[in-house]
């Protein structure tokens, strides 16, 4: 009788540490199996995450991911969340927001469509939605939290409508912001916050779909002139390119 094949979870770990992310086909090749279930069984021995983008196509190790303030991390075009699935991530981002979230704000943060996730959360009674103008604002189901979020949003919408950010300018700001890399987004958000003065961090954070701490950090870097002028990141920072075997 031929010896029974023993699959090693360590083989998956070694590959993921080397490449940062991998597809199921990559992992099967590393493990020497043709069966998805075998890979899944071995992955369960590791602390791993599945991408919420690309329909969960990519896998990474928890020790590899460098999650930001919102619990998000990206490698090339693959996006991961410490909260797990896209649905759960959307739920957390709405629940923890001071003023709820519009769909376009969430898509600016997550870089994927959220319409199906929001529909599921609303139909399952996990989120509340409120009509604001001609858009749906998604908020917490908790009555106390919901009241606070709507109050914050009303305050922000009121101030934004005073002429500081007319609709055309808001759209242009969000579009320009989406073209910047992570570091420049933080600095640009900090600059806009400085223009607002008191309360600017919160207003800009909600306009651009950022964590308020990220805006505050960008503002402090500008004020302290703590800038990396050559644009070189510290070792290990930011996205790294995919290995050739992963590029398709």
How would you describe the overall organization of this protein?
This protein is mostly helical. It folds into three domains: 9-81; 85-142, Arc Repressor Mutant, subunit A (Orthogonal Bundle), CATH 1.10.10; 165-230. It is built from eleven helices and eight strands. The strands form three sheets. The chain has a three-stranded antiparallel sheet. Strands 6-8-7 form a three-stranded antiparallel sheet. Strands 4-5 form a two-stranded antiparallel sheet. Strand 7 (128-132) and strand 8 (135-139) form a beta hairpin. Helix 9 crosses helix 10, helix 9 (182-196) crosses helix 11 and helix 10 (200-208) packs across helix 11 (212-224). The longest helix has 22 residues, at 143-164. It is globular.
Characterize the overall form.
globular
Low-pLDDT stretches: 231-248
- Tell me how many strands there are: 8
What would you call the quaternary organization? single chain
Instruction: Output the helix-strand order.
Output: HEHHEEEEHEHHEEHHHHH
Portion in beta strands: 5-15%
* Terminal residue distance: 40 Å
The chain-level mean pLDDT equals 84
The major pleated sheet works out as: 3 strands, antiparallel
> What order do the strands of the largest sheet run in, or round the barrel if closed?
1-3-2
The SS-based structural class is mainly alpha
Give me the number of helical elements: 11
**Number of individual domains:** 3
| Range of helix content | 40-55%
What gyration radius follows from the Cα positions, in whole Å? 21 Å
């Amino acid at each position: 009788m031929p010896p029974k094949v023993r699959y090693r979870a360590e083989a998956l770990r070694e590959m993921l540490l080397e490449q940062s992310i991998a597809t199921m086909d990559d992992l099967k090749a590393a493990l020497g199996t043709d069966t998805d279930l075998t890979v899944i069984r071995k992955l369960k021995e590791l602390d791993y995450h599945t991408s919420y983008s690309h329909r969960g196509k990519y896998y990474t190790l928890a020790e590899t991911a460098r999650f930001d303030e919102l619990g998000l991390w990206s490698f090339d075009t693959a996006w991961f969340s410490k909260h797990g699935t896209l649905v759960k991530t959307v739920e957390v981002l709405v629940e923890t927001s001071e003023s709820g979230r519009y769909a376009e704000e969430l898509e600016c943060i997550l870089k994927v469509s959220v319409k199906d996730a929001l529909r599921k959360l609303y139909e399952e009674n996990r989120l509340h939605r409120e009509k604001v103008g001609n858009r749906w604002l998604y908020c917490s189901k908790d009555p106390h939290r919901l009241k606070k979020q709507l109050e914050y949003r009303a305050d922000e919408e009121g101030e934004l409508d005073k002429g500081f950010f007319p609709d055309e300018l808001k759209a242009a700001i969000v579009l320009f912001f989406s073209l910047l890399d992570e570091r420049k987004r933080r600095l640009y958000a900090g600059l806009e916050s400085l223009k607002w003065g008191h309360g600017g961090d919160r207003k800009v954070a909600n306009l651009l779909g950022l964590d308020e701490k990220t805006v505050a950090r960008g503002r402090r870097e500008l004020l302290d002139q703590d800038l990396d002028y050559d644009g070189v990141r510290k070792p290990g920072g930011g996205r790294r390119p995919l290995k050739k075997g992963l590029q398709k």
